[in-house]
Amino acid sequence: MSLIQQLNAPFLYLVCGAIILFIAAVSLFFLIRAYRAGKAIGMDTAKMKRAITASATFTLLPSVGILLGVIALSGSLGTPWPWLRLSVIGALHYETQVATAAAEAVGLNGLSASQMTAKAFSTICLLMSVCIMWGMVLSVIFNQRYLARLSSGGSGGKKSSLAGFGDLAMTAMFIGLICAYLGSYIGGFVSGGGLFSFGGSWIPLAVVAVACLAMAGFLWLYEKKNAVWVESFSIAGSMLIAMAAAVAFGAIG
């Protein structure tokens, strides 16, 4: 039995499926509790039902991008593990980035199914799990204290300064990630000989440009045409358009 067949074994489907089922049950439990709490404080049940329906509807298109991520990772990591990661806590950009970095660290040429070994798979799974757990751990330790300070700082502008710091920190971190990615892509582009070398190094930059244009189009529809529904689909839509552009550019390059 090959490694990829072992990674798709029924036992792994059973383990991962049980975990996902437990998470779904917890989500349903809190959904029911929240609905009952809303009724208890006098909220309009019709509005709550519309909110539930809208939330369920708005998850459909973003889930397409997650499904594509599962399909992309399943070729080298099997289906159960990517299914578990992207169903519970993982994010598409995080999982693919960390999995690729871990694979290269153990000597593989990216996420190659033909080169995958049990040791490499174990390392990839460990790194994917450990690197993302700190958000939960730090929230358990510090979140209650942070929220207490955030809600009690009424005088002296303390509340607004804490909230403003959180927004600035998230924005700075996001810009830093973008700069890191663009820096590596620009470096590959320059070392590859430029745009007309068609060495493949121009493709990531072209895909970034397409994704930016797609997001700009969605924002224009939302802000100028009052298409409120676009806001929930803008990220997933930009991802799908960028993926399609990557396939097209790959065929050209």
Write structural notes for this entry.
The chain has 2 domains: 3-132, no CATH class; 141-252. The chain has helices spanning 3-7, 10-40, 45-58, 60-77, 80-88, 92-105, 118-132, 134-152, 158-191, 203-224, 234-252. It contains 11 helices and no strands. Mean pLDDT is 82; it is low at 154-159 and 196-200. The longest helix has 34 residues, at 158-191. The chain is mostly helical.
Mind sketching the topology for me?
Layout: H1 3-7, H2 10-40, H3 45-58, H4 60-77, H5 80-88, H6 92-105, H7 118-132, H8 134-152, H9 158-191, H10 203-224, H11 234-252
Write a brief structural summary:
It is built from eleven helices and no strands. By secondary structure, it is an all-alpha fold.
Low-confidence sequence ranges: 154-159, 196-200
Number of separate strands? 0
Structural class: mainly alpha
Shape: globular
**Oligomeric organization of the protein chains:** single chain
Task: Work out the radius of gyration.
Answer: 22 Å
Beta-strand residue percentage? under 5%
Q: Give the fraction of residues assigned to helices.
A: over 70%
Number of domains: 2
For the largest beta-sheet, the strand count, sense and barrel status come to:
none
Characteristic terms for this protein:
mainly alpha; 253 residues; 2 domains
